[in-house]
Design goal:
The protein is mainly alpha-helical. About 50% of the residues lie in helices and about 5% in strands. The termini are far apart.
């Protein structure tokens, strides 16, 4: 529906002009809200409707490490973009077949984007996918050289994103998980279980016993796919992990966001006790 809100003197004639223009040019009106100055002529308004010029735009910031559903929720809240249509397109055969995956969690790029108010959800998803494709193009050759797939790298990167509070620890955390994978150890990664149970922060013993394939306390190897949308820094960390002999890490619990890293379980147990002591202060 086109609401002219007093912007033209004769809405009936102007609507007729729109139909004629659309027929002659085979163009389509872009939906959205427009800024119309008092001095705007009918011809300028007509051209705006068919070109998106003067359409209202907003900046949307999608933080690193959020899920597809959080992307959809933010888009809805910040630009009135239909979240249901957003998720439907993310889960469509069109997109899933293109990437050969069961879901595209982790394949869209967190960043700040300037978008039209009530932007077409499918166009926004494609823009987010394209943005990450450009980032991935910087790492594709190296991943191929290492014999590792994009899906594998993004999955590991998403876990790193969830675990690394301090940027300098990304590659060290990546090294821990690579060491565990190489030794056929379970990853024991809390964020994958939290993803499995719907984002719950505090995990219970029962959660760690679940048969969900994302439960890395029960199943060895990487989970089926990414658990969030990782940053470029986490993707790079997954591809170039730090070389060391650490197998465990736990938060220091002192508010720094840093972790203590261990090469053996006894040392790790000591740091876990220290974490609990710090948390109870």
């Amino acid at each position: 529906m086109l609401s002219l809100d007093g912007s033209v003197k004769s809405p009936t004639i102007f609507s007729w002009c729109i139909k004629v223009y659309a027929t002659l040019t085979d163009a389509t009106i872009y939906p959205g809200e427009y800024r119309i100055a008092p001095t705007t002529t009918h011809l300028q308004l007509l051209r705006s409707l068919f070109s998106k010029k003067q359409s209202v735009t907003v900046n949307i910031s999608f933080p690193e490490g959020i899920t597809l559903r959080q992307f959809a929720s933010i888009a809805q809240a910040k630009a009135d973009i239909d979240s249901v249509e957003f998720m439907a397109y993310c889960q469509s055969d069109t997109v899933l077949r293109r990437y050969g995956v069961e879901h595209i969690e982790g394949y869209i790029m967190p960043d700040t984007y300037n978008v039209f108010w009530k932007h077409n959800p499918q166009e926004l998803v494609e823009r987010l996918l394209t943005a990450q494709n450009k980032i991935w193009s910087n790492y594709e050759a190296e991943a191929r050289r290492q014999g590792r797939s994009r899906h594998e790298i993004l999955t590991l990167a998403s876990i790193i994103e969830a675990e690394a509070v301090v940027a300098k620890e990304r590659k060290r955390i990546a090294g821990v998980y690579m060491n565990r994978l190489q030794r056929n150890m379970k990853l024991d990664a809390d964020p994958t279980v939290q993803y499995a149970v719907g984002g719950k922060k505090r995990l219970l013993y029962a959660d760690l016993q679940s048969d969900n394939p994302y439960n890395t306390y029960k199943f060895k190897g990487l989970p089926p796919g990414p658990i969030n949308s990782p940053s470029a820094a986490s993707i790079e960390a997954a591809l170039f992990p730090e070389k060391h002999s650490f197998l465990y890490f736990v938060a220091k619990g002192n508010g720094s966001g840093e972790h203590n890293f261990s090469t053996n379980y006894a040392q790790h147990t000591h740091y876990v006790a220290q974490y609990r002591k710090n948390r109870n202060k």
